[in-house]
Amino acid sequence: MFSTAIGPAKGFKAIHHHQSFGINGSSNPSIPTVIHIYGRKIASSKPNYHSAKITASAGSVGQDEAVTREDSKGAEDSRRLRRSADWKAAQTYQESGVIYEGKIEGSNGGGLLIRFRSLLGFLPFPLISPRHSQNEPQKSIQNIAKDLVGSSISVKVVQASEEGRKLIFSEKDVAWSKYAGEIKIGDIFEGKVSKVEDYGAFVDLLFPDGYYHVTGLVHVSEVSWDLVQDIRDILNAGDVVKVKVIEIKREKARLTLSIKQLEDDPLLESLDDIIPKEIEPESDTHSLSNNLNIEPLPGLESICKELLKEDGITEVKVGRRGLEKRVVSQDLELWLSNVPATDKQFILLARAGRQVQEVRMTSILDQDSIKQAVQRVLSRVS
């Protein structure tokens, strides 16, 4: 039981007022009494069961907050476990090479955002299939990407690193797996230049279904038989060209193309025109040249001496010399002629600036072995 007491004030008689009620207020207390003396409010007999209730309410809130925190922690743990499992799934996709069907959820300045379960991965613009821009070639890749948002896309996982938080997709890898089997060395395709770099041009190949699916590289050395100072003087993005497949690296999904090899080397076609034929002197000795009137190009004599040190090469002679109509290389280069060897006689062409000279070799080696021997010699004398 509580009692409310009001102590005596100076000049006044002490007045006591008692009121009984339960702590929980269940005793149905009367309306709280306010005591007045001469019109002034001295004190209130209002019980403080309200404060007891407030205290109980605060305790309840604390318990609720604790439960909420536990629930939140449990949910976060569940999300963490799910994300970890999804990272493992992404790594499995990468290792197996299986195609994944994902939804495009957005785009930014560099590519598309692809949903992979609870993860969000990235498809960079350079790894998007060229077929998307075929119908609207003038449209920017950024605007094409915006139009693709909300659609599904077939991709392969090319990088999945939970630690680095990197999930990278490629659509071009899907196209390669579908169409690379249709490509053979020596095939000729119509293509469109998609990008030009200092070292070469990337060309999208047109397939019989009317779409561009696979991209290859035309190295600057394969653009023209003439010396190319700046590839942009010859090729620009959007140009339609014919190309020849000269190398396929299937394990790396790389395709090497050539424009110049669609034509024969003009030097081989006109060699007899620019270099007068000579009567070959008979000789049964191994020498650099039996024609003392023909001087080798600067640096060529030392190369010829090194060639004679290679196993399987029995004779090296410098031959005809002349001037080309265009510069193929400023530095001295050796080219193995495509003319088939006869009687174990191979022809090399030494080129420097506009000068060209034949080098004839007698060897028991095959053409590939001759190439390797020449490469070893050039690495020694360079």
Helix-strand blueprint:
Elements (H helix, E strand, L loop, with lengths): L3 E2 L10 E2 L16 E4 L2 E5 L4 H48 L3 E8 L3 E6 L2 E6 L16 H8 L3 E10 L4 E5 L1 H8 L8 E10 L2 E7 L5 E8 L20 E10 L4 E5 L7 H9 L25 H8 L5 E11 L5 E8 L8 E9 L1 E9 L3 H15 L1
Question: What is the molecular shape?
Answer: elongated
Low-confidence stretches: 1-56, 279-292
**Helix content range:** 25-40%
| Terminal-residue CA separation | 110 Å
Largest sheet descriptor: 5 strands, antiparallel
- Strand order in the largest sheet: 7-6-5-8-9
Q: Note the total helix count.
A: 6
- Count every beta strand, where a strand is a DSSP E run of 2 or more residues: 18
Q: What is the CA-based Rg, rounded?
A: 44 Å
Q: How much of the polypeptide forms β-strand, as a percent range?
A: 25-35%
Mean pLDDT: 79
Helix/strand structural class: alpha+beta
SSE order in H/E notation? EEEEHEEEHEEHEEEEEHHEEEEH
Protein name: Polyribonucleotide nucleotidyltransferase
Domain S1 motif: 97-172, 186-260
Biased composition (Basic and acidic residues): 66-80
InterPro entries: NA-bd_OB-fold, Ribosomal_protein_S1, S1_domain
Protein described:
The protein has 382 residues and is an alpha+beta fold. 25% of the residues lie in helices and 33% in strands. The chain has helices at 49-96, 141-148, 172-179, 266-274, 300-307, 367-381; strands at 4-5, 16-17, 34-37, 40-44, 100-107, 111-116, 119-124, 152-161, 166-170, 188-197, 200-206, 212-219, 240-249, 254-258, 313-323, 329-336, 345-353, 355-363. A hairpin with a 2-residue loop joins β10 and β11 (200-206). The longest helix is centred in the N-terminal third of the chain and has 48 residues, at 49-96. It is elongated, with a radius of gyration of 44 Å. The model is unreliable at 1-56 and 279-292 (pLDDT under 50).
